[in-house]
Amino acid sequence: MSNSPLLRRSNRIRTIQASLEIENNTFSLEQITALLDGKRVLGSPREIQEVRNAFTAYEKMNQWQADSCDHLLEAHAVLMAGLLDHPGFFRTRDVGIYRGKNWVHMAPPCSQISRLMAELFDWLKSEPVSPLIVSCVFHYELEFIHPFVDGNGRVGRLWQTLILSQWKPALAYLPVETVIRDRQADYYQALVNSDQAANSTPFIEFMLQALLTAMEEMASTDQVTDQVTDQVKRLLYLLNTSQAFKATELMARLNLNHRQTFRMNYLKPALIAKLIEMTQPNSPRSPQQKYRLTPKGACLLRNKY
Questions:
Q1: Pairing outcome for strands 276-278 and 291-293
Q2: How far apart are CA 75 and CA 72, in angstroms?
Q3: How much is the pLDDT for 225?
């Protein structure tokens, strides 16, 4: 993975945006970037607080030890500051977890939380299995115990990253949350499947695949960065707006008259590299087809050009 500070920051922002979107925060990458750059951003006070809390928590990650329950409570206090009455404390009432109107999980009684969390951290300290597996198991068990009134999902994802980063420091900037966000239904289903099986294997399998996908995307981004042609760079700059454009509009802006040259040297390479995307991917020949920058393309522009 790249050692570029700009790329690391970009991946950190992607991580925060995806983890919060899973929790129904509506801020885009651009809004979060602007907020963290000190610019004024329109949004609800709660969403702004969530972003600031998450950035602070991920930046403090290297100050925490993954096998410390006190540090986990501190992380919850940072993530949920200003969002809960008593952040950083285990819940004191029993809760059930719902997805929409459907009940999916009854968490253990609040009277058992301290014991269960102590056992989980004792296991974490002594478990000889690969940190890849350990991080997945810990993530699942924390969601199963559901020790907090709110914030369990974001704490679980943060702590899995912390466990992995203390094994391989570069993994602190792996935006696996973006994969979870894109496969959110599968993420929740893996939790349900593990609950029903009384075994964390379904969740481990899902998370290992998510980690692999995130690593492959990171490697692909690094590789593509070195291979992008000047023609593709020009196309990306044109699409570096919130708008989408038809092929004819892009050709006019690029001062091109030959459609085949445009498609072969500009459009096709950018699509293959997933730097741009169609607005109607199921109808590629639609007269209304337009093209827009992908998050991957935007990340490339921010960090390299």
A1: antiparallel
A2: 5
A3: 54
Architecture label for domain 228-304: Orthogonal Bundle (1.10)
CA 137 from centroid of its chain's CA atoms: 19
Token pair for residue 118?
């102590």
Can you tell me the distance from the alpha carbon of 91 to that of 199, in angstroms, rounded to the nearest whole number? 24
Pairwise CA distance, residues 187 & 222, whole Å:
27
The residues of the chain scoring below 50 in pLDDT are none
Tell which CATH architecture fits domain 5-221: Orthogonal Bundle (1.10)
The one-character DSSP state at 26 is -
Alpha helices in 80-200 (DSSP H): 113-126, 131-145, 152-165, 176-182, 184-197
DSSP 264: I
Extents of the domains making up the chain: 5-221, 228-304
Residues in a beta bridge with 105: 97
pTM above 0.90, yes or no: no
